[in-house]
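Exercise 7 asks you to align residues with tokens for two separate proteins.
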Amino acid sequence: MAGSPLISLCMIVRDEEERLGRCLESARPFVDEIVVVDTGSTDGTVALAERHGARVVHEPWTDDFSAARNRSLEEARGRWILVLDADEILSEEAGRHLRRIAAEEKVLAAVFTMRCAESDGGDTRSLMVRAFRRREDIRFRYRIHEQVLPDIVRVLKDEGLEQRLCPGEIFHDGYLEEVVESRGKNERNLRIYELQLQETPDDAFMLYKYADFLRRIEGREEARRDALERAFAVVEALDSEERLSLSFCGQICALLAEALQREGDLERAFEVSTLGVSTCQTTADLYYVHGNTALLLGDSTTAEEAFEECRACADRPGPIACAPEIMGLGAAMGLARARFLQGWTDEAVQDAVAILEEHPRSEEALNLVVDLHRSAGLYSDLMGRLGEVVLRDPSWAAVWFRGAELLAGLRLYQKALPWIMRASELGLPTTETKALEGECFLGIGMAEKAMDAFEEGLPDPRCHAGLIVLQLLCRSEPTEPLDPSDSDLFQACRTLLGRITSDENHPFREGLTSARSWIRALNSRNRPFLEEAMA
């Protein structure tokens, strides 16, 4: 290829007039040729590409990204290929270093740091091969999430060539939520995933990407779970060398373990995540779910190790992009909980306080502070901490509500009421505040105000339970049938009745205690529910 261009920028586009210009401007100083495969644009994309010096090739769209990508490779003349999408920007640093890397004979491919914008204003980072030598034996595969990596890995192994990390970055914003919705990407991608899986139903990579994609599609939980199980079955069957060589195997373990954890199958979740951290390329997500599962199982040592590794991932981007909050706030909170379980009570409590100071509006951090103080019996210290937060941020409804919960739990109902009222004034949803407000009014003997609060909070089961308690106090049987299988209502009734009857100073304790004989005398279908709730 003597005398041929050094680098060809290869792109596939369709209706990218709004974004294509900035991409081409970022890459043009560092490439010798621009090849754009257009798959059916109806806007000004083609004219814009040609104005930037691109050679435009027209290719009919067949729901196959790899087919379009491979057409661009066939049209390229450069010794190296740089692949970009229209919603990406090549940094100047990355462009300069790529030209140096491409001049080295022993280098086959270049890995870039991909920085992807998120809808919350943050970004994620991952590593991805985006430049490689033009060769007949390197081609894209898969209709969606098209990959050249399998071919590159094979050539690297067979020929002893090198892969380099290119300094700089490629910035991507095409998966911002509003962009995805406006361009109909979800509907298109779902269709292509299903086509690909008809062709390769047991491909672990495609099953993984499909399951990950289904997180954003409502009503597809069962399909997502099935895809994860099928992907994990493939991963489990691989030999150790191949499992370690595939960058996505660890993330498959992370996603399945997370699903199992949510379902309450902690033992299997731990088995899956353990396989991931011990035999696969690891990710922050994998360490995070491994740590959380270990915590739930009471294994604080494993949890601490996992959260330390999760936090360290922030300094070493890997092949899978993970949310920064997992490596930051999430890992820090996990470490505090693990150390608390190990008996480092004071240190863990101080860590929790420091986390809240670093993340001053995080309800997760606030809950951590409350949970650890309460578990340690540090009620006075906790009330002082909440008071400090209120002084710093008097408009934060959540802290007023947690203060009300604390005071009510200590049976300081009169003191709790101003806190709960303030939380309501600051806009905390009625469904969260009215049950506690009604319980506080019960605690100071104000039945009518309690009834008002409970009625306003319906259909929350805790408010429904409060109204049932008031009916029992009046020896008035609930008119609606009480279903023993309604676990939420039953548990709410049992909890509230237990709090009242266990408090010797509660104004309605005696009334409810004496209601037991009245309930036993009832001749109605509600008696079993009420008797069990009062037991």
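Second protein for Exercise 7:
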Amino acid sequence: MATKPSIEKLRELASRRNVAYEISRWYYEPCSLYQEVQEIQKIGFKSQAARWLESMTSAGMQFGTASKEERLKEAQSMADLAGIPLKEITDEIGLSGVLL
């Protein structure tokens, strides 16, 4: 049986991907950690947006069947959920040329 991940583990996962599933499964009730959990969720959305942007590079386009436009749309959606402009994420990960 799976166990509830610690906040530290959740933060680690969020640095690599979207953690909405884990949050809805384990932290669905408002609690004293609610603000921290919300911030971790935003980190996960930002990480997922970065992965979508990275998949738009020539190396990333080798995997999957989504077009560049579809990948950009997904990246924008995740950036919106994170509350961060997509341009800021591209600059941070060094892929500002992807949006051209």
